[in-house]
Design brief:
The complex is a heterodimer of chains A (292) and B (267). Helix content of chain A is 73%, strand content 2%. With 292 residues, chain A is an all-alpha fold. By secondary structure, chain B is mostly helical. Chain B has two domains: 38 residues, no CATH class; 210 residues, Orthogonal Bundle (MetI-like fold). The chains are: A mainly alpha (292), B mainly alpha (267).
Chain lengths: 292, 267
Amino acid sequence: MKSSSLNLAPYALILPSFALAFFIITYPFVDILLTSSHEVSRFGILLRFNGIQNFAKVFADPLFTASLVRTMWWTLFVVSGTILISFPVGLILNQEFRGRGAARAIIMLPWAVSLTMSAVVWRWAFNAEYGLVNATLQKLGIISHPIAWLASGELAFPIEIFVGILVSIPFTTTVFLGGLSSLPGDIYEAAQLEGASVFQQFFHLTLPLMRPFINIAIVLNFIYVFNSFPIIWVLTEGGPADSTQILVTYLYKLAFRLGRIGEAAAVSLIMLLILFVFTFVYLRIQGREAKV
Amino acid sequence: MIWLVLSPLLLVILFPFGVMFLTAVKPRSEVFSYPPRWLPTSFRWENFVEMWNAANFGSALWNSLVISIGATILVLIVSVPAAYAIARFTFALKQPFSQFLLATQMLSPILLVLGLFHLVVFCRLIDSKYALILIYAAFNIAFAVWMLRSYFGSIPVELEEAALIDGCSRLAAIIRIFVPLALPAMVVTAIFTFINSWNEFVVALTLLRSQENFTLPLRVFSLVGGRYTVEWEQVMAATLLATLPVAILFTWLQRYLMSGLTMGAIK
């Protein structure tokens, strides 16, 4: 660390990663910026600058508005469902009990399976005629006739939300377990000596102390779920009749099925904006509350 | 009591694995019998052999291995030096570089898929494994650097300095002292990148054209999507074979992954 050449060392060390990330991620980003503001041929050739016309077309498309609203429900239900299940699961797995290792391993299992594979298996499980979901529910006497689960949006969409929650639990539980293991044990002993009930301990100690981890889990899950493509694409491809379309599937359909490239680029940018605004605003609000 | 509370969740998690296994070993006539039943009357292991040939499973497995291993090696080659630089040096562009990585984390492949497609067309790499290796590596750099850096920071710098004083060259100090200590972190990062690449779907769906280049998720999807008759016993055999190795690897490694993630979260 004495010679002057060493001052360049950190730059030489970060250069390869920077070059790769910059090239692979910045080029497409700039391409989307350009594409969204141009008239584009079906083959992706930019024809002429047309300002915000692509955005205007997107906002005028009722399917965009429907997908946007559905994306909000999708994200809201999957993220809140995931948090509401993962938090108690984290609390339970943080206790000592017989077979905890096995329980942990099973709960983490969906993480190792690709979303595509999970969705394929669920698609078969929810098959109207031969699926084992119908078989099980009929055997238990919960339903009397087989149900065509994926044939209408009203049933298919909640099923997709259910699968979405299931695959998000492992990661979220991991974040909570990490947080719980970092909580200091002595304050609980002190609280017990003072005669605090289990509920008081939970609401006055655990919940406030876990706040940062809950925030991390909400922000990261929001980003993942908002961008999640395979579950809906594999289960219904956004159908039937676009009744389960969310923004990512709508974007894919615009770009690679309908050849409306300019509009697809506009949707990409709108989604990026939503992500940035959400993350920024959420972290801001939480930061302010934490200070008070 | 605890198991009673957890059991509904555990059952729902294990349900698809049961579906996968029991469908994969059923004779075809029982897969498509109405009303459906859980248990097969006999185990038909030939389903796996038939699926392997019909779905060209071997080549999909090979493609997935080549692409995932390629991406993992590339990520390590570029991320280990970068994480080392961030953990050990102070330099003017350290903050901006970290923020750049954070921003790349937000730009997920699906949002950029159109631009990625244009980039790959521009480079004439459509339907090529190299394109997927480069893209998977690029999108895993941010996480890899973040994870490696928090481990590297916990390795005392004094150890390297002691080696320098003892007459080691800087490079030799890194290779003999630092690398062995940092190895667990590199293994965890490698596994994580590998699993991410192994499971990726949308980029593969967009960039791969010919069947012989399909990765496993794409191969399995193509057996199901847009078909009128799906041979579900073969599809389930394929998902089972594609899932099991990674699931076992993951279960074995989850405790290391967990401690790695929490270390990163606290810092």
